[in-house]
Amino acid sequence: MTIGEGCFISHGVMFVNDLLRDGGPAGGDKTKWWHTQIGHHVSIGTNATVLPVRICDDVVIGAGSVVTKDITEPGVYFGNPARFHRPHLENGS
Question: Parallel, antiparallel, or unpaired: how do β-strands 59-61 and 43-44 relate?
Fold first, then answer.
């Protein structure tokens, strides 16, 4: 897992690196673990679940959301699965 600079990860966030592709846990076999990459200035809300994805810079993930696919455009995402809802507001404007 890689987390960029200036990120906020709230409590209860789950990062999943084993998708059980062989029908059971990968255990200590790290070759079966998947990588997650979080860009810079990403905020992830309480109890969100993040599967092995890439999230670009300047993204907000709403509380309780489930991120199932790469996020390639800055903005605000929420829901299950997490979807783009609006652009990210710079400095509250």
Answer: parallel
